[in-house]
């Protein structure tokens, strides 16, 4: 396979040089050029025809979001945003993903060799995943549901008045928008939802607030020990795993600052395994678009515990890494297009 061709767009010469060196260490990546602003980038895209663009959020001469919007309209291509770990950086980056960016990483910081090595591994993996990602937004056309074992049951009326069902969802690359699509289709009295999305710690509050604006449910950052209630969706705060623990006939959130699992904190496997132990057959779980295989083994634990399990289909996934890994492991009972996932989760929660 030919190396993935990358163009780096950043107004900082230091960042351009650092990214060039870090990406250039990977034999599967070729940095074909760099640009200090979007206007220069536009010309280099035409001349160099890169496979992937890394794009700074804030740049001179043209705002990064305006450039991204034009790019997705005129020449759609995979873009990985490089953003600062600030509240404004989080807001702008989430807007960029909504406009079509595949994924995002934080600004590199020169310093400790170990930290820089871990950063290089992350950005190289995300750039290579982006090279094979789908950059067009999912269509809203109805698509068939793929059942892997038993026949599909028809959806039922969505009225929920009990705490005996729990929905668990995990996602990574492309998941910030996929979760929005799912949660905006949930009724305000839906069963409680617990979420894990691979996201920088400083982004979690902005992300929870963004989801809350789009969903009839109440979406919030989880607090350690709080009761899990219907009509609420819980997202772990920055750099914490989210676990579900039993408390009599109810469930509570447990926040865990322990070490990363599958190189992630929060990790989907941590959430799913806790749901398998605490809720078992009372749970319904889904893996959405994402890079890698985090969540696949946890979803298998859930299926073996009697929970209903599904994954997002390849056609509507930005990256079919995590869902595909779950299918190959035999963890998924159903493969479902993104626009149908909310309805399917609600139907399975009533069975």
TrEMBL record:
Q: Which reaction does it catalyse?
A: [protein]-L-glutamate 5-O-methyl ester + H2O = L-glutamyl-[protein] + methanol + H(+); L-glutaminyl-[protein] + H2O = L-glutamyl-[protein] + NH4(+)
> In the record, what lineage is assigned to the organism producing the protein?
Bacteria, Pseudomonadati, Pseudomonadota, Gammaproteobacteria, Lysobacterales
Residue ranges annotated for the Response regulatory domain, each copy included:
5-122
Q: Which organism is it from?
A: Luteimonas chenhongjianii
What job does this protein perform? Involved in chemotaxis. Part of a chemotaxis signal transduction system that modulates chemotaxis in response to various stimuli. Catalyzes the demethylation of specific methylglutamate residues introduced into the chemoreceptors (methyl-accepting chemotaxis proteins or MCP) by CheR. Also mediates the irreversible deamidation of specific glutamine residues to glutamic acid.
Question: Keyword Secreted, does the record have it?
Answer: no
Please state what the protein is called.
Protein-glutamate methylesterase/protein-glutamine glutaminase
Q: Which Gene3D superfamilies match?
A: 3.40.50.2300, Methylesterase CheB, C-terminal domain (3.40.50.180)
GO MF terms on file? phosphorelay response regulator activity; protein-glutamate methylesterase activity; protein-glutamine glutaminase activity
Which gene does this sequence derive from? cheB
**Keywords of this entry:** Chemotaxis, Cytoplasm, Hydrolase, Phosphoprotein
**PTM-bearing positions, type 4-aspartylphosphate:** 56
Query: Which residues does UniProt mark as catalytic?
Result: 172, 198, 294
SUPFAM superfamilies linked to this entry: CheY-like, Methylesterase CheB, C-terminal domain
CheB-type methylesterase domain: from which residue to which, for each copy?
160-351
The entry's cellular-component GO terms read:
cytoplasm
Family of this protein: Belongs to the CheB family.
Please state where this protein is localized: Cytoplasm
Q: Quote the EC number.
A: 3.1.1.61, 3.5.1.44
Any GO BP:
chemotaxis
According to the UniProt entry, the note on domains is: Contains a C-terminal catalytic domain, and an N-terminal region which modulates catalytic activity.
- Tell me the superkingdom of the source: Bacteria
